[in-house]
């Protein structure tokens, strides 16, 4: 079970600050507490409840061994998302979203395999046989692939869920996930539409402190799920390694004394007759 969210900590991190009132999305009305100085204030009690709900769902997904893809390309979120995604050992996209990343996953996998092929070339000496110009071109291709796809190199299949920071900015990623029915977890600010998000967390998605607070909780829940899976695996291995009790032949078959006793009883009964 994921830990409880402290509303005071959310307040200190500035999670409650929304956008200007003129930029709001009316569908966010249930999560808005009040308006102050032309800015909407988010109801942190609802944020805490939604964050706990999302954390529990992410923990369950992580305990099955499936991957959660983190998406955040805005400047203030990039480094934070990369840091916490690495802690939870999950793939992430912090550069430009590659179009068709989900809907055309086969092609994206080919690009990742190309990166692996270049690495093999360097290891087996094929790279050294190339001309200087060819080496330069290969290095540039490798660097470009690493920048855009290096963080998803270990993702061999479609993710079980998406975690998005700023759904308006990452609208292409959201649309692709919706098309493939992939569950979406997202930090939703007052200018976003929470209806298209499966697990919407009403929160300030512009301040780095707010993003870090939400991401730290989310990554902890995922790590907890992974630990549960590992613990279950270890228990299963222990059960399999327990020595099986094999009954000895003497325990199954009667011994010679028992046979003699049966024979004696039989002869006595015959004499009496």
Poorly predicted ranges: 245-253, 259-273
Distance between the termini: 77 Å
Mean of pLDDT: 85
Rg value: 30 Å
Shape summary: globular
What is the makeup of the main sheet? 5 strands, parallel
The main sheet orders its strands as 5-4-6-7-8
Strand content: 5-15%
Please report the number of helical segments. Answer: 9
Question: What top-tier CATH class of the domain at 7-72 and 158-231 fits best?
Answer: Alpha Beta
Fill in the keyword field for this structure:
Rossmann fold; 8 strands; 3-stranded antiparallel beta sheet; about 270 residues; disordered C terminus
Structure commentary:
- The chain is α/β, with parallel strands linked by helices and 273 residues long.
- It has a domain at 7-72 and 158-231: Rossmann fold.
- 52% of the residues lie in helices and 12% in strands.
- The chain is built from nine helices and eight strands.
- The protein has helices spanning 7-12, 44-63, 75-87, 105-124, 132-149, 171-179, 208-241, 249-252, 256-272, and strands at residues 17-20, 32-36, 39-42, 68-71, 92-93, 161-165, 184-188, 199-202.
- It has a five-stranded parallel sheet, with helices on both faces. It has a three-stranded antiparallel sheet with strand order 1-3-2.
- Helix 6 (171-179) links the parallel strand 6 (161-165) and strand 7.
- Helix 3 (75-87) runs parallel beside helix 7 (208-241) and helix 4 packs across helix 5.
- It starts with 6 loop residues before the first helix and ends with a helix.
